[in-house]
UniProtKB/TrEMBL annotation:
UniProt xrefs under PROSITE patterns: FMN_HYDROXY_ACID_DH_1 (PS00557), FMN_HYDROXY_ACID_DH_2 (PS51349)
Naturally occurring in which organism (per UniProt): Paracoccus sulfuroxidans
Family according to the record: Belongs to the FMN-dependent alpha-hydroxy acid dehydrogenase family.
A molecular function (GO) term: FMN binding
Protein name in UniProt: L-lactate dehydrogenase (Cytochrome)
Length: 383
């Protein structure tokens, strides 16, 4: 554990431990992966301003996201098939988030169901919804999230149609995975992962199997999901879901100032500036590059969060200094989970927290709320 000092270390262990098809599933973007790469590399174009000889004692990273207290403004993003990176992965990640004091978001496409996570954690979490054509399914899952005391609905808007990831197609990744010879060999060689998987019954999509029309078993799941993402999603449908949910609503997947303005006028509690970690529209700008324009467009009308490309506490600090109220991490916690389960997610959160804290101090700040553009030297094309 002592030799694991950054997120990259967790990624290396994760790569060794998890079958290639699931590693590739996480570690890929759509088409040329330009956006996937730039999400990370654009952070390094923002420089920090060093400040010396200021009292840096009594620092605090505590804040709030949509009114909920957080130990640092970093939530775990919804990640489909988290339970294939590690047995009962969603439960383990949610428990690590609970202990650390940050929000956990459960994906519609999770392996553990809403009820599994609620029962295991006894703690509120956020539920992410993909809008499906089957309205009965959407209505029922909103009801299930309400019953499980989910404290926010995160509605993902940037996946009405699937961005193509070459690696997934080449690996034959589908839900459920097709058992080709290379797949079987790969799964068999990752025996640590395999033994854990054998111990759990949760190996298929708990939110969907048995709950959606025509999906009684795993074998009919693949065709159902492929055709279910609602291409007709529009603001009218979003309003229907908002009214039905009635609670806190976060709109995820906004990467343009005009869309952000629409979302703010719509009355969402927060938006997440995001390009789905580079998995949807390849060639769109990185989320960190779009953040300043979006903040300018919406002012204080709506809370702005961001994700896509965060791999360190320094990245978090840059997003906050550009005006985000909160951030989400996707792959950064998946690396930890795949490497070492719950402990690995905790490690990822500790690493990011420490980096945020130390960087804040060296920038001469004691409180995350005081971070701002004055802490940054920003390349001209970011302004
Ligand atoms: C995702 N993301 C995602 N988003 C969502 O709303 N529902 C989902 O089910 C998924 N599934 C998913 C799977 C995997 C493997 C990844 C990597 C991502 C997107 C996710 O919530 C988030 O926007 C990105 O992960 C943020 O980028 P980083 O932090 O991974 O760079």
């Amino acid at each position: 554990m002592a030799t694991i000092t950054n997120i990259e270390d967790l990624k290396r262990i994760y790569r060794r431990r998890v079958p290639k098809m699931f590693y590739d599933y996480a570690e890929s973007g759509s088409y040329t992966e330009q956006t996937f790469r730039e999400n990370c590399s654009d952070f390094s174009q923002i420089r920090l301003r060093q400040k010396v000889a200021v009292d840096m004692s009594n620092r605090s990273t505590q804040s709030s996201m949509i009114g909920e207290k957080v130990a640092m403004p970093v939530a775990l993003a919804p990640v489909g098939m988290t339970g294939m990176q590690c047995a009962d992965g969603e439960i383990k990640a949610a428990l690590a988030a609970k202990r650390f004091g940050v929000p956990f978001t459960l994906s519609t496409m999770s392996i553990c169901s809403i009820e599994d996570v609620a029962e295991a954690t006894q703690h509120p979490f956020w539920f992410q919804l993909y809008v499906m054509k089957d309205e009965d399914f959407v209505d029922a899952i909103i009801e299930r999230a309400r019953k499980a005391n989910c404290s926010a609905l995160v509605l993902t808007l940037d996946l009405q149609i699937l961005g193509q990831r070459h690696k997934d197609l080449k690996n034959g990744l589908s839900a459920p995975p097709k058992m080709t010879l290379p797949t079987i060999i790969n799964l068999a060689t990752k025996w640590g992962w395999g033994l854990e998987m054998l111990k759990t019954k949760r190996r298929s999509f708990g939110n969907i199997v048995g709950h959606a029309k025509n999906v009684g078993d795993v074998s009919s799941l693949s065709s159902w999901t492929a055709e279910q993402f609602d291409e007709k999603l529009d603001w009218g449908k979003i309003a229907r879901i908002r009214d039905q949910w009635g609670g806190k609503l976060i709109l995820k997947g906004i990467n343009d100032p005009d869309d952000a303005r629409l979302a703010a006028d719509f009355g969402a509690d927060a938006i997440i500036v995001s390009n789905h970690g580079g998995r949807q529209l390849d060639g769109t700008a990185s989320a960190i590059r779009m953040l300043p324009d979006i903040i300018r467009a919406v002012g204080n009308q709506v809370e702005v969060h961001m994700d896509s490309g965060i791999r360190s506490g320094q990245d978090v600090l840059k997003a906050l200094a550009l005006g985000a109220r909160g951030t989400f991490i996707g792959r950064a916690f998946i690396y930890g989970l795949g490497a070492m389960g719950e402990e690995g997610v905790t490690k990822a959160l500790e690493i990011i927290h420490k980096e945020l804290d130390v960087t804040m101090a060296l920038c001469g700040e004691r409180d995350v709320h005081n971070l701002g553009r004055h802490n940054l030297l920003i390349a001209q094309d970011f302004l």
